[in-house]
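Troubleshooting: if your tokenizer reports a length mismatch, compare your output against this known-good record of 226 residues.
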Amino acid sequence: MQVEISAGPAFAFGEITLPPGGAVRVEAGAMAMTRGDIEIVTSTRGGFMKGLRRTLGGESFFVNDFSTRSGGLVGVAAALPGDLSLVPLDGAVTLLVQSGSWIASDPAIEVDSSWGGGKSFFSGEGLILLRCSGQGDLLLSSYGAIRSAVLAAGEVLTLDTGHVVAFDDTVVYRVRKAGSWKSTLLGGEGFVTDFTGPGRVWLQTRSSSDLVSWIASHLPSQHTHT
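Known-good structure output:
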């Protein structure tokens, strides 16, 4: 997948060039433009249950497949201001992607949902991870810039859970409180995730849940009148 990323890391825009006979799969609503001979087919890709699992994971029920006979271009952009990163998959490692961060991939990449486990549920930061496997390229989006880290075997990286973008399935993860319950409730620090290598981890420099909390705190109070 030939991708040119511009206007990052604040307002990244991805231009995906398709050769004659080429195709790309894109999250519904992420297409910003097309150029040339481009056709689009919308489907649940895998049937009703896979579409439903993607919805539970924060993604759209549908996906869009763009294809071309003579060559063309598809431009994509994420809903929130931030960056894009192209990640190659060689078929040996599966990538677990936080809901909302998958934006496009080669059609050969299988994008499915995987339960993150009870600890992810209690963190309040997303119950379902998207499981991306196969051979090809994957385009990730973030809120803020994307940073990546490669962990050695046994090396630990701790992230605020809202800053997680993706990680290899070779990485073991554990969600826990940032400190005591007092720190969690009064200190502004909620849950964190410990990642233990080996493998790759991607993080975003801003948290969408923090954005939602900030907006909510500035909204006028609503009172019910009887």
